């Protein structure tokens, strides 16, 4: 069985999370991914805690998780010979993924316009804070950004948390991970179009755009009903949130009266089905202070497992609010194979999340560990670009490339 992207070569001008997650998805789909890193330091995530440590070796968890199944080319792009190597690699690649500071590659004369002029079939994806396509530039396009900035400006952060607390972030790196997924999706579309037209194109992936698209519910209720969603208060549906059982929390969502009727029966309060204070979603939202203690009183006699079973059996979708330990021990997670065991020869074996989706005609994902800095420099230069071994040694001596441990 083959993987969908076998034969596709991807060059990653990537760091931190968004670009690396995008190319991880492509690597898991079978692409050859060559990650370009700065000699000496590499991707900044190599130095970010926490670390796996053994026998004097130390590797960062975040780097290990997002960079498996890739090759590392340590290349000095500020040096003219380094830029020439990149030009050659871009001509030998199908895809380039970039999430560096806006405009940095163009200032060196090796940006998407220049490289696509050399290789018209090249698909070049830029992941940025606010978008880089010339025809769609806005006043923020040249700004750098981190995930939390996109969450804040898209309106998501305004809705997370409680009314008497400051706005809160969701999970670390949400905008990065989702943007990596969207970029990979865009690359797939561009490769499919290339099969028809023979031409590559620019894939412009903005974290801000992506978070706006995730926040579609906000746009709909504001545009249609003039409502501005607020932290800690639901206007149209209830209950929705975490509710405490004997040994922890379960998550409940009741989007309509059908599910509400099932919940009312499950907690022994069928009278609430016709009660005016609970007859509609807006009514339940308005009377949440009256209704919540009723649900919590029933839950107080239930463990999470008992409550989840009873409610699911009744037709009320719900689940436990899991910790990391709960997830790693979850029998469904184990049955699905959601956690991959990746063995690094220097620091040991650790569990990392499998990238979705499952496909019936594709073998299971490869489990090569994240590379050491420059581990594949010689192989890329000699096997792909045709450099002589002595030339590679000279480039390394001059600081143009770094040769890492293999």
Features:
14 strands, 406 residues, single chain, Rossmann fold, formyl-coa transferase, domain 3, 3-stranded antiparallel beta sheet, alpha/beta
What can you see in these coordinates?
It is built from 18 helices and 14 strands. With 406 residues, it is of the alpha/beta class. It folds into 2 domains: 9-214 and 335-402, Rossmann fold (3-Layer(aba) Sandwich); 257-326, 2-Layer Sandwich (formyl-coa transferase, domain 3). The strands form 4 sheets. A 7-stranded mixed beta sheet has the order 8-7-6-1-2-5-14, sandwiched between helices. A 3-stranded antiparallel beta sheet has the order 9-10-11, covered by helices on one side. A hairpin with a 3-residue loop joins β12 and β13 (348-353). α1 (18-28) packs across α8 and α6 crosses α9.
Structural class: alpha/beta
Distance between the termini: 28 Å
How many whole angstroms does the radius of gyration measure? 25 Å
| Tally of helical segments | 18
CATH topology of the largest domain: Rossmann fold
- Major sheet attributes: 7 strands, mixed
Quick recap of the structure?
This protein has 406 residues and is of the alpha/beta class. It is built from 18 helices and 14 strands.
Blueprint (SSEs and pairs):
Blueprint: E1 9-13, H1 18-28, E2 32-37, E3 51-54, E4 57-60, H2 61-66, E5 71-75, H3 80-91, E6 95-98, H4 104-107, H5 112-118, E7 123-128, H6 147-153, H7 156-159, H8 174-197, E8 202-206, H9 207-214, H10 216-225, E9 240-245, E10 248-253, H11 257-266, H12 281-286, H13 288-299, H14 304-314, E11 318-320, H15 324-329, H16 331-336, E12 339-344, E13 348-353, H17 377-384, H18 389-397, E14 401-402
Helix pairs in contact: 1-8, 6-9, 8-9
């Amino acid at each position: 069985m083959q993987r969908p992207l076998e034969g596709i070569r991807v060059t990653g001008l990537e760091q931190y999370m968004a670009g690396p997650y995008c190319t991880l998805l492509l690597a898991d789909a079978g692409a050859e991914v060559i990650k370009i890193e700065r000699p000496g330091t590499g991707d900044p995530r190599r130095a970010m805690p926490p670390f796996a440590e053994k026998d004097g070796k130390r590797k960062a968890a975040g780097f290990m998780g997002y960079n498996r199944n890739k090759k590392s080319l340590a290349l000095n792009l500020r040096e003219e010979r380094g830029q020439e190597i990149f030009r050659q690699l871009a001509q030998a690649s199908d895809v380039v993924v970039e999430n560096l500071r806006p405009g940095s590659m163009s200032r060196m004369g090796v940006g998407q316009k220049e490289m696509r002029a050399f290789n018209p079939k090249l698909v070049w994806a830029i992941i940025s804070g606010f978008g880089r396509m010339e025809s769609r530039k806005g006043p923020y396009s040249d700004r750098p950004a981190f995930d939390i900035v996109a969450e804040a400006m898209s309106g998501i952060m305004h809705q997370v948390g409680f009314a008497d607390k400051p706005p809160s972030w969701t999970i670390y790196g949400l905008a990065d991970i989702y943007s990596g997924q969207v970029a990979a999706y865009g690359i797939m579309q561009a490769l499919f179009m290339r099969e028809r037209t023979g031409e590559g194109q620019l894939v412009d992936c903005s974290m801000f755009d992506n978070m706006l698209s995730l926040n579609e519910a906000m746009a709909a209720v504001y545009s249609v009903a003039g409502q501005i969603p607020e932290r800690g208060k639901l206007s149209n549906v209830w209950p929705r949130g975490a509710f405490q059982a004997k040994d922890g929390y379960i998550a409940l969502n009741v989007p309509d009266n059908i599910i509400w009727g099932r919940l009312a029966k499950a907690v022994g309060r069928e009278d609430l089905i016709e009660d005016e204070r609970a007859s509609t979603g807006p009514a339940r939202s308005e009377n949440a202070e009256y209704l919540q203690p009723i649900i919590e009183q029933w839950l107080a006699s239930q463990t999470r497992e008992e409550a989840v079973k009873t409610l699911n059996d009744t037709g009320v979708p719900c689940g436990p609010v899991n910790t990391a330990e709960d997830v790693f021990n979850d029998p469904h997670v184990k049955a699905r194979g959601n956690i991959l065991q990746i063995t690094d020869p220097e620091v040991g074996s650790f569990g990392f999340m499998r990238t979705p989706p499952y496909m019936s005609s594709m073998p299971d994902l490869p489990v090569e560990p994240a590379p050491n800095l420059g581990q594949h420099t010689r192989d890329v230069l000699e096997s792909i670009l045709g450099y002589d071994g002595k030339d590679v040694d000279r480039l390394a001596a001059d600081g143009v490339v770094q040769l890492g441990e293999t």
